[in-house]
Amino acid sequence: MQQQKLGLWLLTALVVGNMVGSGIFMLPRSLAEAASPLGVILAWLLTGAGVLMTALVFGNLAIRKPELNGGPQIYAKELFPKGSNAAILSGFMSSWGYWIGNFAGNVAIITTFTSYLSTFFPVLTSKQTLFAIGSLDIKLGNLLTFLICTALLWGMHFIILRGIEDAGKLNFAATAAKVLGFFLFIVIALFAFEKSSIGPLAAPRYDDAGHSIGLLGQVNNAAVSTLWAFIGVESAIVFASRARKQADVKRATILGLLIALAIYIGISVLVMGILPQKELIQSEKPLVDAIIMILGPSGGYILAGLGLISLLGSTLGWVLLSAEVPYQAAKQGLFMRAFLKENKKEVPSFSLLLSNALAQIFIFSTISHSMSAAFDFVIYIATLAYLVPYFIASVFQLKLTLTGETYKRALRARVIDGVIAVLATIYSIWVIVSGTADIKTFMLGVALLLSGIIFYPQVKKAAQQSEEKQKISA
């Protein structure tokens, strides 16, 4: 059976659809809490520039190393001698961390979906206690949220089992609808923008102990949150082996990033100019609350509907991504061989099933947390899980430019790519340092990463078998 291929626009839709998901709906609140308006703007600009460098690295590697597909984590093994323990271990651990980030990211998007669904069904926010399990009170709203999240996750599971290309087309339709809707939101919000709502541009923020946080500290605090909005920029790279042309992978990555950046900066600044700061920080669905102030309740329903379409597309894209990452890693000998199992439609069925089963475990957090608390917790862990592969891809690009591999006599291209790799590496280090300043978050991130060690013997055995087969066939 001929493998279904993805063209430029389906790849771009995956990039935009996966980036412009839960982040745009919840981040205005998270950012208002973390930083002053000036801090938020600076965080967006720094993050946008850093992610652009990272996207250029991804696009370049897709063209120069087309055989290494499946995501940025794949490059980890290339930093060490081929077939060595260090190469296999680094490739596996990087893939493991990236995979955890994927299915944790799914949960952030799915929980945001139910948050926006509560616009139509307020019972989802009900605080009525139904029963207790030990010291945990099970509330009606939380239980219904859990059930809807579960239904959405497994609904997407069965859609994807019917074929990657069909799922990609559905994602494209949802992405086109939301991009159009967000640009309409920006146009409407421009007329209602009130400078007084933003307040002082460099207003202070305070930590838990009541100490004032300076502008640089605010930018650091906002950096991990703004990066979450760009997670997914590598989506086209993950599906590089399914692309019609490798050049489309780079084009889709850059085009998707620019579309998302325009939407993010426009919406985050405009929402700050519509909702007063105190209301914004307390909001569980800031975009809906902002449009209600402009157009009344009917506007809120329209935007909530747009949000639901958008998040359905994002959920589809992220569930696809979650299954593809360990599948491609297994093809490279960097993950357990069971992940290679496909169905008749060439969908990685085992990988899809296990990824969603693990996402289901994360969804249990909705039973005891509010939407915003669950969202904040999950995006922090997921973002830090992504940063290591981003850093590795940048270092690998740097290695290619230093050794001259794949460049032959193209000195100018080699220098430009080297500068881009250095900037992308510095950016990754900055966000990792900022994000792990909190020891609790750091330790949790390390624990999630190290949890994969128990599977390493299986991966090492699979890698050795794969290498032996290659030697025999050669």
Automatic annotation (TrEMBL):
<dbReference type="InterPro" id="IPR050367">
    <property type="entry name" value="APC_superfamily"/>
</dbReference>
<keyword id="KW-0812">Transmembrane</keyword>
<feature type="transmembrane region" description="Helical">
    <location>
        <begin position="103"/>
        <end position="123"/>
    </location>
</feature>
<protein>
    <submittedName>
        <fullName>Arginine:ornithine antiporter</fullName>
    </submittedName>
</protein>
<dbReference type="GO" id="GO:0022857">
    <property type="term" value="F:transmembrane transporter activity"/>
</dbReference>
<feature type="transmembrane region" description="Helical">
    <location>
        <begin position="143"/>
        <end position="160"/>
    </location>
</feature>
<feature type="transmembrane region" description="Helical">
    <location>
        <begin position="301"/>
        <end position="327"/>
    </location>
</feature>
<feature type="transmembrane region" description="Helical">
    <location>
        <begin position="172"/>
        <end position="193"/>
    </location>
</feature>
<feature type="transmembrane region" description="Helical">
    <location>
        <begin position="44"/>
        <end position="63"/>
    </location>
</feature>
<feature type="transmembrane region" description="Helical">
    <location>
        <begin position="222"/>
        <end position="240"/>
    </location>
</feature>
<keyword id="KW-0472">Membrane</keyword>
<feature type="transmembrane region" description="Helical">
    <location>
        <begin position="347"/>
        <end position="367"/>
    </location>
</feature>
<dbReference type="InterPro" id="IPR002293">
    <property type="entry name" value="AA/rel_permease1"/>
</dbReference>
<feature type="transmembrane region" description="Helical">
    <location>
        <begin position="373"/>
        <end position="393"/>
    </location>
</feature>
<dbReference type="GO" id="GO:0005886">
    <property type="term" value="C:plasma membrane"/>
</dbReference>
<feature type="transmembrane region" description="Helical">
    <location>
        <begin position="414"/>
        <end position="433"/>
    </location>
</feature>
<keyword id="KW-1003">Cell membrane</keyword>
<keyword id="KW-1133">Transmembrane helix</keyword>
<feature type="transmembrane region" description="Helical">
    <location>
        <begin position="439"/>
        <end position="456"/>
    </location>
</feature>
<feature type="transmembrane region" description="Helical">
    <location>
        <begin position="252"/>
        <end position="275"/>
    </location>
</feature>
<dbReference type="Pfam" id="PF13520">
    <property type="entry name" value="AA_permease_2"/>
</dbReference>
